[in-house]
């Protein structure tokens, strides 16, 4: 049963948007007026931190060569110098009134790629330049994105093309586009079968080896990456696929029934056939489920609450429950992506949570004490559910987990003022060793939106950290003024 099409989010004004979502961060922190290197502080910090390299477990982790159609997994090493410098800055000039949302941020060694309304754009990583490598106009606004790309830099987006006749204006998201992010070339585009009730509020997209899978709660479909050929699809029934988590495996969230009587189950699928390999039945009374990881399988559940109350880890072979981890005092932020609704695919997105192969890392709630660390990131053992270390922020300087890297984690720590910079740090929870990757400042006017994982997208890749606000709003008094779209920071290197 459909709840009916939502009002188009692309035509509502910024003033009328729903602002009722909870804001995790209540403090207003100062920042620098421009992106500058904190040279003196970096010199002191380098003396305090151990040198990167020898003995680092993450660096010692062997890098396995991936097939081109596998979901990309890269390994990072510490840059020659942690002194940060501007690597990408793109401003949208004369932003149209209807262009407000920017779903999707990806990065390669050479490009930062951003989704904005009805287009994808690639920006070259080049110090101090605003250099657009390519721009791909799509046939409609972006409805759903994957957080992943393939090893050879391809990804997919679902779009909302215009529809004639009775379907006009209903905001149906029924086409998927597969794109080469190196060149901006559209590789193939397909109309999703039976997607009459696929909207920006309920469409989810995932990638796994050789397969693109999309679900919208009233049906689902999977395509072969190489050819765009349909592999399988489902239609409306008593139980329906709500969304997928991809990567090294394909995990499906299945909902049976409606409203308060709904029951959930999670299935690991054979990505080529859509047939389940195992099924885990979620306990009754759970109000919502997210899938932050497919391998290892991790569920984030809302048990009797509107927020995530527990994480459940499963055995990847047979789907048996391994551990349950209470989220009391933590903020995984599942589904909390700063938009005025669950837009652009929310089933697999938890910006306060990162899952590695045998550790998961979750952000704590903020402290109200001004002389205490603003928050911390806590590591848990995936199999046992026990704590396995913690990384503390500083007073007024929150820490956010960004991505797993080998046996370690890459974190972002916010700046507080023009003396204490933001930082990207690698942390190994087994040894409690931390290695600085980058020190820098963000522009003062944009620091709040860029640093908050609910409001901003943050990606660390190939020695660079990239920031993009999820919403871009032009100045009503100066509508032609440029609006920051993407900002990236890399190492200044050892320059004398």
Number of helices: 3
Number of strands: 32
Helix content: under 10%
Q: How far is the first residue's CA from the last residue's CA? A: 66 Å
Task: Give unreliable regions as ranges.
Answer: 1-62
- CA-atom Rg in angstroms: 22 Å
Structural class: mainly beta
Shape: globular
Topology:
Elements: H1 39-48, H2 57-60, E1 84-92, E2 105-107, E3 111-116, E4 119-124, E5 132-137, E6 141-145, E7 154-160, E8 175-180, E9 185-191, E10 204-208, E11 211-215, E12 220-224, E13 230-234, E14 239-245, E15 250-256, E16 263-269, E17 276-281, E18 286-294, E19 297-303, E20 310-314, E21 321-326, E22 353-355, E23 359-363, E24 376-381, E25 387-392, E26 399-405, E27 408-413, E28 422-428, E29 433-440, H3 447-451, E30 456-461, E31 464-469, E32 483-491
Antiparallel strand pairs: 1-32, 2-3, 3-4, 4-5, 6-7, 7-8, 8-9, 10-11, 11-12, 12-13, 14-15, 15-16, 16-17, 18-19, 19-20, 20-21, 22-23, 23-24, 24-25, 26-27, 27-28, 28-29, 30-31, 31-32
Any overview of this molecule?
By secondary structure, the chain is mostly beta strands. The longest helix is centred in the N-terminal third of the chain and has 10 residues, at 39-48. It contains three helices and 32 strands. The chain has a four-stranded antiparallel β-sheet. A four-stranded antiparallel β-sheet has the order 2-3-4-5, with no helix packed on it.
């Amino acid at each position: 049963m459909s709840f009916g099409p939502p009002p188009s989010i692309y035509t509502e004004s910024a003033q009328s948007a729903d602002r009722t979502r909870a804001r995790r961060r209540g403090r207003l922190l100062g920042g620098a007026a421009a992106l500058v290197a904190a040279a003196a502080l970096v010199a002191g910090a380098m003396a305090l931190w151990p040198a990167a390299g020898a003995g680092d477990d993450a660096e010692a982790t062997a890098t396995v060569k991936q097939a081109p159609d596998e979901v990309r997994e890269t390994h990072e090493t510490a840059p020659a110098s942690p002194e940060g410098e501007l690597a990408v800055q793109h401003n949208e000039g004369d932003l149209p009134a209807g262009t407000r949302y920017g779903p999707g941020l990806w990065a390669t060694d050479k490009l930062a790629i951003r989704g904005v309304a009805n287009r994808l754009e690639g920006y070259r990583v080049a110090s101090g330049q605003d250099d657009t490598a390519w721009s791909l106009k799509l046939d409609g606004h972006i409805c759903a994105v994957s957080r992943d790309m393939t090893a050879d830099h391809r990804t997919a987006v679902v779009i909302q093309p215009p529809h004639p006749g009775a379907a006009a204006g209903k905001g149906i998201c029924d086409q998927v586009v597969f794109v080469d992010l190196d060149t901006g070339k559209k590789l193939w585009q397909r109309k999703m079968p039976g997607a009459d009730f696929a909207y920006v509020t309920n469409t989810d997209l995932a990638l796994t080896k050789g397969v693109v899978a999309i679900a919208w709660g009233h049906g689902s479909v999977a395509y072969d990456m190489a050819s765009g050929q349909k592999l399988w699809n489902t239609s409306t029934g008593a139980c329906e696929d709500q969304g997928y988590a991809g990567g090294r495996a394909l995990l499906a969230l299945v909902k049976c029934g409606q409203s308060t009587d709904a029951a959930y189950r999670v299935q690991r699928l054979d990505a080529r056939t859509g047939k389940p390999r195992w099924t885990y039945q979620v306990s009754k009374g759970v109000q919502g489920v997210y899938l932050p990881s497919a391998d290892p399988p991790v569920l984030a559940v809302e048990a009797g609450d509107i927020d995530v109350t527990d994480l459940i880890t499963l055995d990847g072979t047979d789907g048996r429950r391994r551990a349950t981890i209470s989220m009391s005092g933590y903020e995984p932020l599942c589904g909390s992506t700063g938009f005025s609704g669950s837009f652009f695919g929310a089933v697999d997105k938890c910006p306060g949570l990162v899952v590695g192969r045998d550790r998961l890392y979750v952000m704590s709630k903020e402290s109200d004490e001004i002389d205490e660390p603003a928050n911390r990131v806590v590591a848990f053992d995936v199999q046992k559910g026990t704590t396995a270390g913690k990384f503390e922020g500083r007073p007024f300087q929150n820490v956010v987990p960004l991505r797993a890297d080998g046996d370690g984690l890459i974190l972002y720590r916010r700046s507080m003022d023009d003396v204490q910079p933001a930082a990207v740090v690698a942390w190994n929870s087994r040894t409690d060793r931390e290695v600085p990757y980058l020190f820098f400042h963000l522009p003062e006017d944009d620091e709040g939106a860029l640093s908050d994982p609910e409001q901003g997208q943050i990606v660390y890749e190939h020695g660079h950290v990239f920031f993009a606000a999820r919403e871009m709003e032009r100045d009503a008094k100066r509508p032609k003024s440029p609006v920051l779209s993407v900002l990236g920071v890399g190492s200044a290197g050892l320059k004398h």
